[in-house]
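Appendix B, example 12.
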Amino acid sequence: MTTTLVRARPAGSRTGYWPGVLAAALTTTVTVMPGFALGAFATAIEGDLHVSRTGVGLMISIFYATTALSSPLAKRVAARLPTPTVLAVAAVAACAAMLTVSRADDPATITAALVAGGLGNGLVQPAVGRLIAAHVPGHRRSLAAGTVGAALGATTLVPGLLVATVVPAHGWRAAMTIAALIALVPAVLTPLTRTTPGPFPARAEHAATTTGTPRGVLALWALAAALSATGNNAVATYFVQLGTHSGLPAALTGNLLSLSALLAIAVRLVTGALTERAPCRNPAVITAMMLTGGLGLALIAIGTPATFVLGAALAFSAGWGWTGLLLAATLRLVADRAENAGHTVQIGIYTGAAIAPYTFAALSGAFGDSGAALISAAAGVAGAAAMTTGAVLSRRLEGDSSRRDAAPEPAAPVGALTCADVGTARHR
C-alpha cells in the first residue's frame, strides 16, 4: 500500500509563517468571546433582563451548539474559500453578535445574535488547521497549534478584565460594546494568513477504505475533548459566580479570571514548545492534562477561597491546556486532510461547551455549585479515559500499517514525522 502525497512548502523564511499563525490565534480568541463574555457578565445580565441563571446558560449553550452543529459545513467552506476571507468573516460576525447583545432587551434577541456568532466561530478551527498544514513544518506544528490553543485560553482574559474594570462603573452593556470593538482588531490582520498558491497535500485514498482507519481514533479524541471541555467550560463560564460562592469578592474574582487566562496561555505555549521534541507523545501529555484538570475541578468543588484559587489554576492551566496539542496530534494523524483535524477538535470542544453552561446551571440548581463542580471533575476523568483509548488504537493502527507496507513510502506527508525524525528536521 502506497499513497503519494504532495508536500505543501511553508512560504517565506523559516519563521515566515509566524505572523499568519499569530493572526489566526487572535481571530480564534475573539470569535469565542461572545459565549465567555455573556457568562462573565451573567450576574449583571440576570438582574437587568430578569433572566435566570439557567436561561443565561441555555443562551450560551446555543452559541456553542451552533458552532458544533455547523462544523461539518464550516469544514467544507474553509477548504474552498481563502483563509483570510474565512477568518475575517468570523471576526466580523463575533463583533456584530456582541454589539447586538449589548443593545438587546430580551433573551430572544440575544439568542439570535449568539446563533450568528456561533456560525462564524465554526469557520475558525478548520481554517486554522488548513493554515498550519500549508505553512508550518511538521517539527513546528506542536508550537503553532499550541499558540492557537493559547488563544482559546485568552478568551476569558478580556471578559475578566471588563468584569473588574468596566462593569462596576459603566454596566455590562458598555463592557460588551468594548469587547465587540476589540473583536474587529484581528479582522485587520487576517491578510497575514494568506496561503501561497500551490497544491495542498492530496487526500490519501486509503484513509477511508483500509480496514484500520483513523476514524475511530478521531471519534474517541473528539469524545475526549467533549467530556473534558464540558467540565472546564462550565467553570470558565461561571467562574465569577463560583468564586463569589467560595467567598471571594466579585472584582477579585474577575481579576483571577484574567490571571487564570494568562496562566492558560503560558502553559499552552510551553507545552507546545516542549512537545515538539517528541510529537508522538502528545496524546499521553493530553491525557495527563485532562486528569490534572479534573483534579482542579474537584478542588473547586470544596468551596473555600484557597481551594478555589488552586483548583482554578489547575483547571485553566492543565484542564484547558490540551487544546493546541490535540490539534497537533490530529494533524499528525490526518496530515493529508488538514481541515478534518480542525473539524475534529472543534466539534469535540464545542459539543462539550454547548452541554456545559445549561447543564451546569441545572446541576447547580439541583445539587449546588459544589455538586455540579464535582460532576464536572468526573467528566474530565472520563475524557482522559477516552483519550487514552484513542491513543492505544492509534498505535495499533500504526503497527498494522507498518506490517502491511512492503516498501518505504515514496513521499511522506509533512506532518507525519516520527519522534526520531524531529531531531533531524530541526537542523534542516
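The domain at 18-188+206-405+412-421 is CATH 1.20.1250.20 (Growth Hormone; Chain: A;). The mean pLDDT is 79.
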